[in-house]
Amino acid sequence: MSELTEAEAAARADLEERARRLFAGPITFLKSAPALKFLPDPEAPEIAFSGRSNVGKSSLLNALTGRNSLARTSVTPGRTQELNFFDVGTPLQMRLVDMPGYGFAKAPPSVTEQWRRLVRDFLRGRVVLKRTLLLIDARHGIKPVDEDMMQMLDEAAVGYRVVLTKADKIKASDLAATVAATEAAARKRTAAFPQVHVTSSEVKMGIAELRAAILEDAAI
Predict the structure, then answer these.
(1) Which of 150, 169, 197, 217 is 20 to 30 A away from residue 137, measured at CA?
(2) Which residues contact 180 (CB under 8 A, 6 or more apart)?
(3) Integer Cα distance of 80 and 73 in angstroms
(4) pTM (2 decimals)?
């Protein structure tokens, strides 16, 4: 990646600060939607978070917003089987959507199919959905269930950013290899951004940059 000019660096710093202030302000849980008929009115741009169960989605949401319990974390993967909406800003500026995790091994086929139908229909029909963040565990890289989700996003023509989580949990050399492999996979996808975000909720790695990207995607 080329070095930023002085003007570009200043603009990036300004965007990161605006994002920090927005996410440090009022953020409230709005509602859970187990089916499309329960979706809130499309009043603001939405950014969705998707990922395998236990990928660290709740922890990332909490880190981005500077809260400890905005999104519930659970030791039992796959508990969240609804679309959870959070209002950002007063007045409302945007919404964050915590999508149900996928890849849970113990779920019966009927639950898995219900998840697939809800997510697919949401992705295809939500006009205010500006971007989806696809979370991948940096320790494991892209798994077949992640490839299934990427395919679903490609087919829905929803632009998405790939976000590696738990990057502090592996060696730097292993992380570099995972980033390279993930970027190579993203370049083959029609709806994926080629840039991969590297984050750690625990040590706040990449959080400011991801907040700025979210603000940019929401175009607010």
Answers:
(1) 217
(2) none
(3) 10
(4) 0.92
What does each C-alpha distance from 96 to 19, 110, 130 come to in angstroms? 14, 27, 11
CB 133 within 8 A of CB 50: yes
As given in the structure block, the two tokens for residue 53 are 């169960």
Chain mean position to CA 219: 16
Per-residue pLDDT tens over the stretch 105-145: 667 788 788 888 999 999 998 999 999 999 999 999 999 99
Which residues is 163 bridged to in the sheet? 135, 197
Number of domains in the chain: 1
**What CATH number did the domain enclosing 187 receive?**
3.40.50.300
Residue 1 lies in a domain: no
Here the tokens at position 203 are 């040590």
Place of tokens 């590696």: 164
119 lies in a domain?
yes
Distance CA 55, CA 130 (A): 22
Question: What domain range is 143 assigned to?
Answer: 6-218
